[in-house]
Amino acid sequence: MARNCHNDLKMKFSVDEEFPDLSLHNNHMAKALTKDIYGKLRGKSTPSGYTLDDVIQTGVDNPGHPFIMTVGCVAGDEESYEVFKDLLDPVISDRHGGYKPTDKHKTDLNFENLKGGDDLDPNYVLSSRVRTGRSIKGFTLPPHNSRGERRAIQKLSIEALASLEGEFKGKYYPLDGMTDAEQEQLIADHFLFDKPVSPLLTCAGMARDWPDARGIWHNDNKTFLVWVNEEDHLRVISMQLGGNMKEVFRRFCVGLQKIEEIF
């Protein structure tokens, strides 16, 4: 297990001395975190060195809005969900209407099972989009990525996506290496994503080293995109103008399967 010297320093103080003031907070973390839970978990860390205070810091720094309940915590790696389950399980349950650790998300990515959706009313539908996020096993999550790890994710993504063929053949554009013309075109296509400015994200470490090792890949038809190292390792998007959601979903399912196979 990785040693966190800053966490060792905090352990010199009592739970009462280190427990954050959450009296004015309105987020799921503040609702779930008690001194007992804090005392039980504050000395623990994941194998990559992620601690309880890392998990809750964004929720401590951002009390929330009286009418908007935010989450208030982040996971730094896959192991966070086990090491800090005494906090994260109730947060997830509260946020997702009673979702239990034993529950399984129901997924059907067989596009042939989708009935209709190929002729949504053009008077109301300008474009259609389906998207998801994917994390690559073996890497920490974006709030905890080091520069080298983030660059390794980008390198792996570039190599993997370059192997796609047919309707998925495309090109990768690094945010810190594209030409002015490429940047202007990506803006015109509404593909370019910006540096996070929300305190919820910046306090979670999501904007560190920006734009290092972030980028956009899209197919030649500009209907299938992958954002690399934005808020997820990979953000996979299928989109096109018009109301043919069935075609968008077909491309999404086929493309996502190909990506999961090559990764």
TrEMBL record:
Is Nucleotide-binding set as a keyword in this record?
yes
Give the EC number(s) under which this enzyme is classified: 2.7.3.2
Identify its protein family: Belongs to the ATP:guanido phosphotransferase family.
Instruction: State the species of origin.
Output: Epinephelus bruneus (Longtooth grouper)
Per its UniProt record, what PANTHER family does this chain match? ARGININE OR CREATINE KINASE, CREATINE KINASE
Q: What Gene Ontology terms describe where this protein resides (cellular component)?
A: extracellular space
A single GO molecular function term of this UniProt record: creatine kinase activity
Taxonomic placement: Eukaryota, Metazoa, Chordata, Craniata, Vertebrata
- Give the record's keywords alphabetically: ATP-binding, Kinase, Nucleotide-binding, Transferase
Full protein name: creatine kinase
Q: Which residues form the Phosphagen kinase C-terminal domain?
A: 124-263
Residue ranges of every copy of the Phosphagen kinase N-terminal domain listed in the record: 10-97
Query: Which residue stretches, if any, does this entry annotate as coiled coil?
Result: none
A single GO BP term for this record reads: phosphocreatine biosynthetic process
**Keyword match Nucleotide-binding:** yes
Q: Which Pfam families match?
A: ATP-gua_Ptrans, ATP-gua_PtransN
